[in-house]
Amino acid sequence: MGSSRMFVATACLFVLACLVGCSRATAPVDQTVTPATRPVAKPPTSAAMTPLTVFAGAASKPATEEAAAMYEAKTGIKVDVTFAGSGTLLNQFSQEQYGDVYLPGSDDFMDKAEAKGAVDRSSRTIVVYLVPELLVEKGNPKKVKGLEDLARKDLRVVLAEPKAVCLGDVSEEMLRAKGLWDSVKPNVASFASSCEDTLNALLIGEADAIIAWDAYPRQHPDKIEGIALPKEIAKPRNIPGAVITWSKQPDAARKFIEFLASPDGKAIYRKHSYTTEWK
Predict the structure, then answer these.
(1) Cα–Cα nearest to 215, from 242, 232, 236, 189
(2) Residue 179: left (phi > 0), alpha (psi -120 to 50), or beta?
(3) Domains and CATH numbers, the chain
(4) What is the CA radius of gyration of the chain?
(5) Which residue(s) pair with 113 in the sheet?
(6) What is the pLDDT of residues 222-232, one digit of tens each?
(7) What does residue 177 show for φ and ψ, rounded to 5 degrees?
(8) For the segment 130-141, what is each residue's pLDDT rounded down to a tens digit?
(9) How many CB atoms within 10 Å of residue 7?
(10) Of 215, 225, 262, nearest to 105 (Cα)?
């Protein structure tokens, strides 16, 4: 009996030793997270990633669309552009007090925006230059020579709408300077609501002559041609950009304008036949 008890006691001691050993081998691992092992948090979405809202004169549509696409590809910032007559756009964003960038078709509408306090004057930047010309069908079948011909009854004339489209104001100003406004106005078949519509009237054959920008004949060399006007009345204008007063992301808006006026931006406008330098 004594030997049996000793065997049982020895066996119990052996089992206990095994249990203690296993307990030590499976001790919990320290789960403390060190700087080296801490997961890297994703950066918060930047406020500048909010889409930029741009109000642009229709005259610059092809070039501005391409520039906006390039800017988005470079920065990841989406650019939403609304194209229309410069005066119409100014009224729209001024009443709604909304938007980031104003890019009118001509500098005179930027002057109006500044006078209304609708843009930040310090952000105003010239992007390209524009020169008004008399445009006709390729080959000039109607033998148009100058502004005086716009009063001819055999010509269908289309002009941009004054006070709504920068080109309309420029056209009226030049015709008045030559004393021709009162004789030409009754001969105008229609007043277009944008620079683009003015151009389209000539391209689709609804007009024999229009007043428009010098870039258009270079953009459509097979369809139309330009007739230079006297320099004393055909004064160069420009397309400027500025930050809208009510922009909630003025720094991002300013950077977009800077891109338009940068070598990369100007290269796009030159590609679309705009004059990017003027002395």
Answers:
(1) 236
(2) left
(3) 51-129+237-271 (3.40.190.10), 132-227 (3.40.190.10)
(4) 35
(5) none
(6) 999 999 999 88
(7) -60, -30
(8) 999 999 999 999
(9) 10
(10) 215
